[in-house]
Amino acid sequence: MSLLLDVKVPGVPLQVIKDATGQGIEGKDKILNIMSEVISQPRKKKDNWPISEKLEIPMHKLSQLIGIGGSNIKK
Length: 75
What we know:
By secondary structure, the protein is mostly helical.
């Protein structure tokens, strides 16, 4: 696991940041464990669930998709 932290509060000791990060990781793990106890597997898909598809559009065609000032997106 990697962590990137940008602390803009001057004077906060590094140990306080380490402790808070550790508590956050422990809390996240505890929540995930509770979730896995309640729901052991994902729900089965229903027929009326939304469908998502991934499209790969060449960079030179991207402006045609978006339109002038985002007009196609706004439609």
